[in-house]
Amino acid sequence: MGTNMLTESAAPTRTPHLTSCTSTRPPLAPSPVACDTGAQLAERFRQGDEAALVAIYHRHSSCMFTTAMYRLKDPELAAEAVQQAFIQAWQAAASFQTSREMRPWLRTIVRRTAVDTFRRERPHFGHLSLDVVSNGSNPELPVTDPELEKLDTVLEVRSALSRLRPEDRQVIQLTYYHGYTQREISRKLGIAVGTVNNRITRARRHLTVLLRHLDTSA
Could you give the angle at the alpha carbon of 118 between the alpha carbons of 123 and 92, nearest 5°? Predict the structure, then answer.
């Protein structure tokens, strides 16, 4: 079973060259276009820029590996599912809509490749079905399940929080994770209540933008 990252592709003219993925940890070296915004990176990816693909791999492979591990419970198979997901994403790059969020799109792909990997490796799991391996509840091999969706949402929220200004993230954490009132936060941080309110409002607006793709009410 090969674990070199993206070393083969059904589309020879779009074969990416990424760092080897022989371990279960994604590489930590910075990507060459790491400073691009999400929209800029997505557009470069859509146009077939391999450097953009490398940057996307650095940004998202860890979360994708977590998603694959949740289903497969095997580091080598999870790494292979991530590899196949990036191959498929690269082959579909030209059709990617840059108005979409990249991470949910990649996770959808890796869920499917995890299912494909499980089906191919089924003999190694004995008589277990994917729902047993992944602690899921549907024996019909669903692409998603409630527990996995919860995990994805937690990871998305954590990622969004990390992108807030430090002072905004602090008041959000004190409010929602520790249950402090605005007046208590004011005393704790030594700032005016109005400042606390402004930071919370600003943080909520930013989070609404960052997490809008999680809204399923539409």
Answer: 145
User: Which has the closest alpha carbon to 3: 79, 109, 86, 96?
Assistant: 79
Name the one residue in this structure whose structure tokens are 């606390």.
196
Q: What is the pLDDT along the chain (218 residues), one digit of tens a residue?
A: 444 445 443 333 444 445 433 334 343 344 444 445 678 889 999 999 999 999 999 988 888 888 888 888 888 888 999 999 999 999 999 999 888 888 889 988 998 998 888 888 765 554 444 444 444 433 333 334 444 555 566 667 777 888 899 999 999 989 888 888 999 999 999 999 999 999 999 999 988 887 776 654 43
CB of 66 closer than 8 Å to CB of 155: yes
| Residue type present at position 214 | L
The answer to whether 203 and 171 have CB atoms below 8 angstroms apart is yes
| CA 185 to the chain's CA centroid | 32
Task: Transcribe 73-95 into DSSP letters.
Answer: --HHHHHHHHHHHHHHHHHTGGG
| Residue type at position 81 | A
19 vs 15, 82, 184, CA distance in Å?
A: 13, 13, 48
Residues in Cβ contact with 185 at an 8 Å cutoff, skipping those fewer than 6 apart: 171, 174, 175, 191, 196
Contacts 24+ apart (CB under 8 A), 14-19: 14/48, 14/90, 14/91, 14/93, 16/50, 16/53, 16/54, 16/86, 16/87, 16/90, 17/50, 18/53, 18/54, 18/57, 18/86, 19/54, 19/57
Q: What is the DSSP letter of 173?
A: I
